[in-house]
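Worked example (supplementary).
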Amino acid sequence: MSPINLNTYAQNTWCPGCGNFSILNAFKMVLGELTAEGFPLENIVLVSGIGCHAKIVDYLNVNSFYSLHGRAVPVAEGIKLANPKVKVIGFAGDGDAYGEGLEHLIFAAKRNIDITMIIHNNRVYGLTTGQYTPTSPLGFKGRSTPGGSQESPLNPLEVMLASQATFLARGTSHGIDLLKKIFKEAIMHKGFSLVDVLQVCVTYYNMYEYYDRRVYELKDHNAQDYNQASNKIREWNYDSDNPIALGVLYKKELPTFEERFPEHKATDADRDFKIKEFLKNSI
Amino acid sequence: MDDFSVLIGGKAGFGIDKSGIIIGRILNQLGRRIYIYRDYPSLIRGGHTFSIIRSSQERISTHKNKVDIILALNQDTFNFHKERLQDNSVVIFDSDSVKLEGLNPKVQVLGIPITSIIKAENAPEIMRNTCIIGAFVKAVRIKWEILESVFKKEFTRETDLNFKVARRGYEEAREAVKMVSLLQEPLPLLTGNQAVGLGLIKGGLNAFLAYPMTPTSPVLHFLAEVAGDFGLKVIHPESEIGVILMALGFSYMGKKVAVGTSGGGFCLMAEGVSFSGMAELPLVVVLGQRPGPSTGLPTYSAQTELHFALNAGQGEFARFIVAPGDTQEAYFWSAQALNLSWKYQIPSVILTDKNLGEGVFNFDQSSVPEIKEVTPGLWDRESSYKRYRDSESGVSALAFVPDKDAVIKVNSYEHDEYGITTEDTQQSTFMQNKRLRKEKYLQEELEKFETVKVYGNKDSSMGLLCWGSNKGVCIEAAQNLGLKVIQPLVLWPFPVKKFQAALSGVKRLICVEDNAQGQLARLIKTFNFKVDNQILKYDGRPFSLGELEEKIKGIIK
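After joint prediction of all chains, the assembly is encoded as:
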């Protein structure tokens, strides 16, 4: 564990066995490593949406912005644009990022803005007590779809690849070492990064056994190769029983939004003078 | 003639709007005060667009129905507007394409073969405007040099051809009326939207975000143009939801930020406005009103979002709402909205509308009260940092990321002073009281400002009550009819004491609004103020001076 104290006094209210614990613990290890390497903790801002996942910001003694359902992404973008030196890490659920806030995710990927999104993808709404989400399989029996959902799931990584994200990875809540590795790589990646974590909701959709039987860690995979990445991303569509690849699926270095965004410098003294100039030219 | 109105009309997409502004600028050089009403439909090409450029001795912000000159580039312009002509008015028209049928014989006519000139000079069709402006300048006996100086500023491309075409129009025309210079310095001409933008800059704006929507897109365009000069970040995100949430990210980082939209976009922003209230993240919204419900009349004007602005967002929280009525007020109060938002860590709404935002007015900076940028209350670095630490006024000291001694946590859930989620009964009540208490202190601070203005005959027992862009037309009508005008500028927290004082001596109160249900009348009723009569207009068009006077006369007999 890290030598710094990252805990708050907030009482943890996740269910025993919740997959969110792995994400929290892996992330704490990453924060510990980053600070040990000299990265100032005060330069990190965490953003969350709303849902079980979002409680993570209450449990970490780090700058945080507990946002709205679906809206972690634009907040993270605003923070990054306000000060590009800050590392912004967003946490969101699958209902949150892939449902209500999908437009923001697509645009953040398209801009290649340098933020990291960690998606707690448990494929069910937990906090609202068990409804199907954008990544639940066809026929999912939830409280809003007692006869089974009538729509196929999104493959969020395929959507992200098409949206020009430059870093895509997948992990599970049974695999804390891999999570730690890919979280850190995602955070260090210059550009938009997303980690889809197959995080298990023990209460409403316990998939531990299902995932354990199907997941495998990528080997000899060239993440720089778009076609290889695309094939691995499409191998499992969140509906079939195909093998599920874990690790870094796609990675590419491209200019970021904030690099392309012009940085203007102007002092307050200039302002009054320039307002006067503008007015003179408006006669 | 001291008071003089020109109408120019033609098809949308043919430069009518820009020509109206050029004519305004030319007249402005004579020391005349200018107001331009711009009327255009919601389409890119075709339809009918027109501008009325009125000029006068005094600063004005309303048009008259009757005009002194019509510049008719097409038949529609003549047909739609010939009723506005009076004896001795002048019609300048394209004699190649416009037929003057049914014209008052006392109107002077000045036909210019514009289509032939354009063809002969091998000029693009858009220069029909330039040609008719040349003819106009001659007809009203304005010196050619004045046209030249304005053209040099307005046309950066094809300047020579523009001059040539204008000169042809000038030479074909004859002198018809005399436009006198007035002995005063010209003042800058601004749209209300530009005045809002400059006011935000004056208030210390760092970032502006908006999704395009009439009538506030021009604020976005203007600030994007001048971003380099003023060190701004101007961003056009994917939606109004993206806009407001990104803006809250800027606000968290200590950047003074504003967003712009109209009613439909503000619907999408409502959740973010409530978040700003809960998380105490300062935010300014420029809300340009246009007629609804729904898409409504997108390129026209209304005063229909007062109650929406008062109530937008779930829950109860402090907010500041101001409705400027002219460019000076737009400048001053946009700066103050940023200041007050930051001082009290609340959302502010600047209510404008299409008439104010896209109308063109003179701007007299010397009549704007002094504006000081307010430094928000910062953390003293002594006590341990808590983002929501309680205080007498309910305002917590601010610290911004990165600060090695402070962990800064904001939260949309009910939270404790540190920013951690709570559902505790006592904490919840305590924090809600803390947030709401700020409004009382804001209201006290507003006592220092002129939040309610009075004009016209201050001894009259008849009062015209108005808000926002109706200010100008009400003042002029009141001057002509000997009435008093009362204009509340700040609409929330409502300045009850000042409003009461402004009503002193008024026995009959007539409320003038651009909506169907009398939104200001409804607001003041909650403070036990009653209006006796209402003059309501909701066709999207502004009151003309004559129209309002007739309505008032019908009431006061």
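Two points are worth noting when inspecting this output. The domain at 452-556 of chain B is CATH 3.40.50.920 (Rossmann fold). Chain B has a mean pLDDT of 96.
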